[in-house]
Amino acid sequence: MQIAGCGALVTGGASGLGAGTVRRLAALGATVTIADVNQEAGAALAAELGERVHFIATDVTSAEQMQAAVAHATAVAGALHVLVCCAGVATAERTLGKEGPLPLERFARVIAVNLTGTYNAVRLAAAAMARNMANDEGERGVIVCTASIAAFDGQVGQAAYSASKAGVVGMMLPLARELARHGIRIASIAPGMFDTPMLASLPEAAIAALAAQVPFPPRPGRPAEYAALAQHMIENPMLNGETIRLDGALRMAPR
Ligand SMILES: NC(=O)c1ccc[n+]([C@@H]2O[C@H](COP(=O)([O-])OP(=O)(O)OC[C@H]3O[C@@H](n4cnc5c(N)ncnc54)[C@H](O)[C@@H]3O)[C@@H](O)[C@H]2O)c1
Prior knowledge:
The protein has 255 residues and is α/β, with parallel strands linked by helices. The chain has a single domain, classed as 3-Layer(aba) Sandwich (Rossmann fold). It is 45% helix and 16% strand. The chain is built from 9 helices and 9 strands. It has a 7-stranded parallel β-sheet with strand order 3-2-1-4-7-8-9, sandwiched between helices. Strands 5-6 form a two-stranded antiparallel sheet. A hairpin with a 2-residue loop joins strand 5 and strand 6. Helix 1 crosses helix 9 (223-235), helix 3 runs parallel beside helix 4 and helix 4 (104-129) packs parallel to helix 6. Residues 11-12, 14-18, 36-38, 58-61, 86-90, 113-114, 117, 146, 148, 191, 193-194, 196-199 line the site of nicotinamide-adenine-dinucleotide (NAD).
């Protein structure tokens, strides 16, 4: 799918990996809508990047708000061709903590944003994409989701986060198979350690310990490097149903 001239929607596009993707898609000539709960950062990024970048306050866990975001992205661009799902929350909480078992609602909240929120965006965007004219390859849309290497090597305290991201990985193949008849591809990126506000929210010692484990390059990834893979997923018609680790060969230790 050619990015220039297409309509794109980026959930979680106000910050970090999503913001890096918004910048790249806009630079490549897409009309981009940022859907994020963070109004201030989302509106500021849209204002900075000019008239082809829009912002709509959106909680990905809400069916109504996500539908409004899809409608907005479709209206401003004329059609929606690309969805990149970056909205997510990270938690590190033990199942058996000092105050007893983890309250169930804390587990459910992570699943609601990272897994159900991703699915919510995918299902509504796919419905809009299915109405597009197909290009020469028969493509009507491309969806890029964000998992995490925690889906595969989750650390102590990451049960909820890892489960939510493993859920994202698990739905790639069935969605690719189902959406094939509509000419819609879907794939996900499993980032390792990336330099974003989410990473910065971890304790400094935890960041240093993780950085020391990355074989090469021995540093956190940059949002532009995530965006480069998202771009490739959008542009390469053969990439479908897969999750690609983007992690400098990092395999996380138990803690
Ligand atoms: N940074 C990393 O090292 C790393 C590693 C692996 C996976 N990831 C994943 O990458 C994605 C982006 O993370 P990031 O590092 O850029 O974090 P970030 O905190 O910088 O950005 C996440 C964005 O999601 C938005 N968001 C949160 N809940 C939302 C909701 N309910 N509805 C709409 N928007 C919501 C936030 O407002 C924020 O703008 C997340 O899914 C995260 O789990 C990040």
